[in-house]
Amino acid sequence: MNKIIKILWMAALSASVLSNPMLSYPGRDSGIFLYIGSLILKGKIPYTNAWENKGPFIFYINALGLFLTGGSRWGIWALEFLFLFSAAGVGYIAIKRIMGEIPALVGTFIWIVAAENVLQGGNFSEEYSLLFSFIAAYFFLKSVEESQNNFFNIIVGASLGLNILLRPNNISVQVAIAGAYFVLTLLSKNWRLLVNRAVQILIGALMVVVPVVFYFAAHNALTEMINVVIVFNAQYSAGGGLSRSIEGIINAAHGIGFSLVAVALLGYIFALVSVFKRDALDMPQGKFLLVLIIGLPLEALFSGLSGRNYPHYFIGWSLYIGFLWSYVAYIALNQFASRSEKFSIPLVFIFLIVALATRIDIWKDYAAVLAQLATRNAQLEYRDPVVDYIQKNTSPKDKVFVWGFRPIINFDSERESPASYLPYPLSHVDTPLAQHWANEFYSQLTTNPPTLIVNMIEPADRERIPDLDPAVRKKQKIKWKDVVLAYNYKDTLNFIERNYVRVETVNGYAIYKLKNLTMP
User: pLDDT band for position 354 (50/70/90)?
Assistant: First the structure.
């Protein structure tokens, strides 16, 4: 019964932090991943048919979710739940192994709450990476307990490869594990073991990465993938500097919650003190704390490399916060309540009740979904009214371009964009590579003009993206110091003004039609 209650609690906690597709709409990144996932199901290849600077795995996760549910966003919801629930389970087992059951319960609850605070609607690469990071942490524990078992380090390497394929920044846990192995070797002088572990981790990573490299090479997309994921991201992250890193740490603490971070930092100090005690690094717990000591600063560095500091960049912090809270709980229990383990069953029962009672509105929303299932024409997903207009006034073969970088409209309306460079007119960097993509965009737009163009600039982008309406554009105050637009954006605006006419306004967004085109 205890196990069942814990499973129900973790499931309830995981489901409660996810966005309900019937009542919410994907943000920009999630919309991109959904759109590219839908293109994959049509046989198209990321990077060549659709531009996005994340690793390829996120697109195929979305393609899988859409495939499982016939194109419904509920398939993505199900995969998000599976990843979070599995991460909760793996993390719980790892913490319980070295600190006990109550610290494991506390740590699991805290890391999910911390992740929720910066989840921003979900379906981010950082979110999916958590599972592989927890897997790496667990198998590190196994490897230090059974150093002769090669399988454990191969799994750590495979988790490294998977996180690289999601987003190369999401590898702080695996890098920290490598660092911990090196420190332990300095103490033991067993260099052969270090080499063996390094080789095993490398083998695990290559087992995951090499097939993907061959796949994209076979589809003539490897060079573009490298340019987008590695070269562009390096250019995008250049010039961050110390001030941006400090700003990122402050933003992370603010987004996650200062109280959650403060207790975690207290745990970090306790961990530092602990590992310097005599023979501490001879025990699995001390070795695990060493990973946390090395990993948290790495995560702070990696998550802020671009200097953009979007809240979801800090999802990876939640693992460290959960583990460090567990350690604080472990110390407190040993100090003041050494026999507290006997209360673990009532505690998890209380946690389950709290998870249900404090999220009552969320469960009502899910109940509304179930009620919709019983209706004749169930509407289980929210859709923007612009999507309905597009579907009524175009055919599936028609192209639709969304000015303002909202590919969710292309996904939801099942109308492809005429160009592969989706962020246009945002360029982010002023480099020859960015100019190449701008030229490619203009060529694709002008040789295969879309039937409709939707002027869909969100309020947050009003200071970054010029409006299609010349009168509105004159009044805009673009923050030129903070934005890099495609060098040929004025040519694109002129092309649209010459060849398109405004025909409708839907949900506050102007829609333009190609001139001399009869609408269905």
Answer: confident
Tokens (6 digits) for 471: 């009168």
Question: Which residues lie closer than 8 Å to 224 by C-beta, 6 or more apart?
Answer: 47, 48
Provide the b/e sequence for 439-457 (b: ≥16 CB within 10 Å): eebbebbeeebbbbbbbbb
Compute the Cα dihedral for 358, 120, 314, 6 and give only its sign: positive
Sheet strands side by side (includes 500-506): 400-403, 452-455, 509-514, 500-506
Residue reference for tokens 């001390």: 286
Contact 407, 382 (CB under 8 A): no
Q: Which two tokens stand for residue 182?
A: 């090196």
First CA to last CA distance, the chain: 61
Q: Cα(207)–Cα(95) distance, rounded to whole angstroms?
A: 28
Range with lowest mean pLDDT among 109-123, 306-320, 462-476: 306-320
Q: Is 485 helix (H, G, I), strand (E, B) or coil?
A: strand
- Write down the H helix ranges in 358-488: 360-373, 385-393, 407-413, 432-447, 470-475
Residue 375 — very low, low, confident or very high, per pLDDT cuts 50/70/90?
confident
Cα separation values, 291 from 45, 126, 280, Å: 37, 19, 13
Who's near 295: CB < 8 A, 6+ residues apart? Answer: 172, 173, 175, 176, 320
pLDDT at 376 > cutoff 80: no
Rg (CA), the chain: 25
Give the DSSP H/E element, type plus range, for residue 502: strand 500-506
Q: Give the H or E element holding residue 402.
A: strand 400-403
Burial class (CB in 10 A: 0-12, 13-18, 19+), 366: middle
Strands 500-506 and 509-514 come out as antiparallel
- In the chain, where the domains are located: 6-364, 385-514
Q: What type of residue sits at position 245?
A: S
- For residues 94 and 134, the answer to whether their CB atoms sit within 8 Å is yes
422 CB contacts (<8 Å, ≥6 apart)?
Answer: 32, 35, 50, 51, 52, 405, 407
Nearest to 114 by CA among 315, 325, 352: 315
Cα dist from 508 to 26, 368, 456, whole Å: 18, 28, 9
Q: How many CB atoms lie within 10 A of CB 203?
A: 14
Structure-derived torsion over alpha carbons of residues 239, 243, 248, 251, reported in degrees to the nearest 10: -140
269, two tokens:
């100090």
Could you say which DSSP state residue 231 is in? I
Check if the beta carbon of residue 187 is closer than 8 Å to that of residue 228. no
Side-chain half-sphere exposure of 145, counting CA atoms within 13 A: 13
Mean pLDDT over all residues of the chain?
A: 92
Query: What does the pLDDT look like over 393-402, one tens digit per residue?
Result: 999 999 999 9
